[in-house]
Amino acid sequence: MKDNMKPGSSKTTKYTFLFVLLFILYFASRFLLLAGMVPPIGLEECHTGAAAHEILKHGFQFPIEQYTPEYYETTIIIVSMITVIPEYIFGLIPFSVEIVPFLFSFASLLVCCVLLVKSGFRRGLGFLATFFFFGSGVFVYLTMDSVGSHIIALLFCMIIFYCFYSFCISTRRVYFYLFWLFSGVGAFVHISTLMFFGLGILVYIIHFAADKKFAERLHLSGKQVLTGLLLFVVGYAPNIYFLIKTDFRNVLFISNIFNRRVLEHSEKDIFYKSSIDAFLFQFDGRVWPPVMFAVLFILCGFYVLKLRRRPDRFNSYFLLVTLFISVIPFLIAIVLLSGLEFTSYYIYLMPMLFLMGGAVSSLIIESLASNNMKLDIVLQCCIAAGFSLMLLKPFYHRLNFSLDNSRRIYIADKESAYCYWRFGKAFANYTEYDPDPAINARRIIEKCDRFDTVEKQNECYFGWGTSFSQTNLLDDRAVKVLGERRARLLAMSMGAWEQDLSFCVSGNIPSPYIDDCIVGMIEKRILNARSLPPMVYQNILFPCTHGSLPRYSGLLQKLRNDYNNGSIEDAAARYEVNSNDIRAITAGYCAAMDSNDGYCAEINKNNDYSAYCRMVYDVLTYAREWETGESPLQ
User: Fold this and answer.
1) So what's the pLDDT on residue 378?
2) Residue 223 · residue 349 · CB < 8 Å
3) Which of 524, 564, 529 is nearest to 543 (CA)?
């Protein structure tokens, strides 16, 4: 039997077994960790489920760009189209929405593994897998989040990096052309892929100038460079289409973000501190992982110098030097783009750090284990196990390995898989605003009433105010066209996207809809809190709106049902999320709805808290009296 076996068959069986094992472990870790840390489907991600459902049920009934809530989120439509497949197979459930980002994430991990093996750093696979599996709660969440285009962009980034690396170590021109093609497509997927494209160009120029042998091996003719540029344009063509369709608003949007976060920010000390805080946030606020990676960065520089004169280790050297060069410019680019905000852009830096850690750990194990295979395996297992225990510590106690819990979260809880409010945001972004409120109101109705149920339409109106909260969206002419139900929803939406209560009470909202504006403000903050770990949001109550609000569908209505329980007294006392006196606003609203004049004075001994509650109570009481004609000032 042994004589009949082909030499490559055992090797193929081995790699197949490792692939299946890695898939099972990664699948289990991602779905269990995600369920234990935060609600698997967030308030933005549920748009993917709704978009896939609409495509599956009605085809492309809207212009294609109107499936993307933001101008720069063009690949939401790609993710939604792919999600149609699991949704068709499994139905509209959270698992159908989550399996697509999982597959993109797993593919990114595989590319990283191939890079380590190809560069001679097989011993570092344990380090890479450990940090990819458990790197931090933030990294776990981002690699399972289908909103925007970060997870598909990460895959393109790693493919671009792989093509560049393969071209430089093999000199095969096909990788050079693929590098340009995927860079063009990547620029459509997400602007962050340009970091990896720029890294390739930078490393190539440095080596071309500093290394004669490298320049001779990888010299490119003018025709080859021109072909690469043409392939970039071909890959970028979809983005050119979207640029034209959106009147280049995505470029202006990104430019405005950069101006707001960096160029217009004068308090540099706060900027730098916030940037450090944002970086630590990526590691669940722990200091030791960044310190460890700083040490690995220094060791990486040491090994670059050590391997530089080793032509037999060029593959290893070239990966090390590319990773070493990448860290600083990537970190600067991410800090500049993120500014004062906790950002998801660190998802692109993390795999580079993990690769660097895998490469350095491989070299350390190599120097310790020499040719002793048993010691090699023991060291790899010890490193992986040690880091796993340390990395899991912040949230291991939240893990629930019950199959019943997983079934409930990913299969039985169908309402969590979809929401329609971000369609309203998308429609608003792609609808021309008219100074005449009546014309504008008719355009809103025309867009949102395209949905086939009232619940979906209600969510559409609720999401519309994200773009026009500062306009005269609800003057008398607009209200007359909209009618009461739509006007209430727009008032709620306008309140939801404002940070200050004064917006609702300073003349922006007609008196009959001030209470709806305040409800929108309270509801949106509660909904945001629902994306926090369960121990935070489980105590949120807002009972005095129960049964009085227009119904939504899916996740939004489910969350409403969760917090519309309990007594009025519990509402303020149990709300534990720190968000700009929201407890006082909630208490004042509930007191006004129940005409409980003394409630604000009873709930808290803090005078500022009681005064804020009383202000909300007085404003709403006055607005209700004005609406019913009971105000003495009328």
Assistant:
1) 81
2) no
3) 564
pLDDT band at 578 (very low <50, low <70, confident <90, very high): very low
Question: How far, in Å, CA of 314 to CA of 103, rounded?
Answer: 32
Cβ neighbourhood burial of 500 (10 Å; 0-12, 13-18, 19+): exposed
Sign of the dihedral through C-alpha 157, 159, 163, 166: positive
Q: Residue 299: pLDDT above 80? A: yes
Q: What is the pLDDT of residue 534?
A: 56
Does the pLDDT of residue 257 top 80, yes or no?
no
Share of the chain above pLDDT 90, in %: 33
489 alpha carbon, distance to own chain's centre = 27
Place of tokens 């593994």: 113
User: For residue 27, what are the contacts with CB-CB under 8 A and spacing of at least 6?
Assistant: 102, 106
**Whole-angstrom distance, CA of residue 347 vs CA of residue 350:** 5
For residue 588, the tally of other CB atoms under 10 A from its CB is 28
User: Residue 120 in contact with residue 313, Cβ under 8 Å?
Assistant: yes
Q: How far apart are CA 436 and CA 459, in angstroms?
A: 24
CB 497 within 8 A of CB 473: no
> Which residue intervals of 190-287 are DSSP H helices?
193-210, 212-217, 222-245, 249-258, 268-281
**DSSP per residue, 445-498:** HHHHTTSSSHHHHHHHHHHHHHHHTTS-TTSHHHHHHHHHHHHHHHHHHHHHT-
Identify the residue whose tokens are 């043409």: 230
How many angstroms separate the CA atoms of 592 and 634, rounded? 20
Q: Which two tokens stand for residue 65?
A: 């760009």
3-state secondary structure of 25: helix
How far, CA to CA in Å, does 331 sit from each of 149, 276, 278, 567?
A: 20, 11, 12, 49
596 is written with which tokens? 């409980």
Contacts of 523 (CB under 8 A, 6+ apart): 492, 496, 542, 545, 560
Six-digit token string for 229: 């540029």
Q: Confirm if 106 and 271 have CB atoms less than 8 A apart.
A: no
Where would I find the beta strands (DSSP E) of 38-164? none
CB 189 within 8 A of CB 153: yes
Say how many Å lie between the first and final Cα of the chain, rounded: 100
pTM recorded for the entire structure: 0.87
What phi and psi values does residue 285 have, to the nearest 5 degrees?
A: 80, 5
Which two three-digit tokens encode residue 512? 């009959």
| pLDDT at residue 107 in the model | 96
Q: Quick one: tokens of 594?
A: 């129940």
pLDDT digits (tens, 9 = 90+) for 412-462: 888 889 999 999 999 988 888 888 889 989 999 999 999 999 999 999 999
Q: In angstroms, rounded to a whole number, what is the distance separating the alpha carbons of residues 26 and 402? A: 17
Helices (H) then strands (E): counts for the chain: 30, 0
Residue by residue, what is the 3-state secondary structure of 483-523?
HHHHHHHHHHHHHHCCCCCHHHHCCCCCHHHHHHHHHHHHH
Q: At what angle do helices 46-58 and 554-563 cross, to 10 degrees?
A: 140
CA-CA distance, 216 to 29, in Å (whole number)?
46
The set of residues, in sequence order, having a beta carbon less than 8 Å from that of 84 and lying 6+ positions away, is 52, 55, 56
